[in-house]
Amino acid sequence: MQQTSPLRSPSIDVISIQSQVVYGSVGNGIAYRALLKKGLEALQVPSVLFGCPPYYGKPHGGVISGEWFGGFLDDLIARGVMKRTRAVIVGYLGDVMQCHILANWLQRVRALNPQIKIYIDPVMGDYGEGIYVDERIVNCYRSPFLRLANGLTPNGFELEQLFGRPLSSREQTQHAAQALLNDTTEWVLVTSAPGVAQHQDEVGLMLVTRQEAQCFTHPKVKSAVKGTGDLFTALLVSHLLHGAALDAAVVAAGGEVCDVLAEAAHFGWEEIGSLRALT
């Protein structure tokens, strides 16, 4: 018998749905920590649970089953949490079933809480690594699933997968990002954006909205750590939830990622350790 209570759940700033590792700074291993560091009330929902990231070799753990994954999400609705949540971040998903479960759940959540913001990082792969998720997840992202998002944060490689062909110029990148905009999706922020950086020691970003396209660059920091995209999205969302304008949030998040990477490089870390660089 389900327990009832006159009490209610506290307000939550953001729920982060992505991979979880016991050791490592990828997925919620870095995103959740960054959200807390920025003073937000955050919850995490794992799509996979590993002892460490797979780039160390085959890890212990695995994909969260559809029954468990859907159950975690349903529990948040049952406890009334989603009526008092400001934003949802979606990152790495473990299998295509999770895509379908999540799409249905996000539609239910938006019906319960029309003001909620949904931010999706369509994690599929990267330059130099190729696609590192099931091809069916890529196809799911090419479906109407992404149209549920208010904002998207693909890297350049992922934007190419969504667009269906390679991108080499600023104009092509802008055109591909604009194709993802709709009545719900207000902006697309492309990291490692093709055609933006003019020098090899820079990283380019492109922010595309319904009104304009803006380009940004920041220094390329030599660091071996992974999870920078997960960190960037978490920091971007944190600045937005604290009231920053979108372009200012992009600049602030990009600068903070550079600071964190510089700290990791200085100490020779294989993973992001302290987040002292964040204020």
From TrEMBL:
Alphabetical list of Pfam families matching this protein: Phos_pyr_kin
GO molecular function (one): pyridoxal kinase activity
Enzyme class, UniProt record, top EC level: transferase
One GO term (biological process): pyridoxal 5'-phosphate salvage
Protein EC: 2.7.1.35
Entries under InterPro entries matching the protein: PM/HMP-P_kinase-1 (IPR013749), PyrdxlKinase (IPR004625), Ribokinase-like (IPR029056)
Keywords, alphabetical: ATP-binding, Kinase, Nucleotide-binding, Transferase
GO CC aspect terms: cytosol
Keyword Transferase tagged: yes
Ranges of residues in domain Pyridoxamine kinase/Phosphomethylpyrimidine kinase: 86-266
PANTHER family assigned: PYRIDOXAL KINASE, PYRIDOXINE_PYRIDOXAL_PYRIDOXAMINE KINASE
Protein name: pyridoxal kinase
Native organism taxonomy: Bacteria, Pseudomonadati, Pseudomonadota, Gammaproteobacteria, Enterobacterales
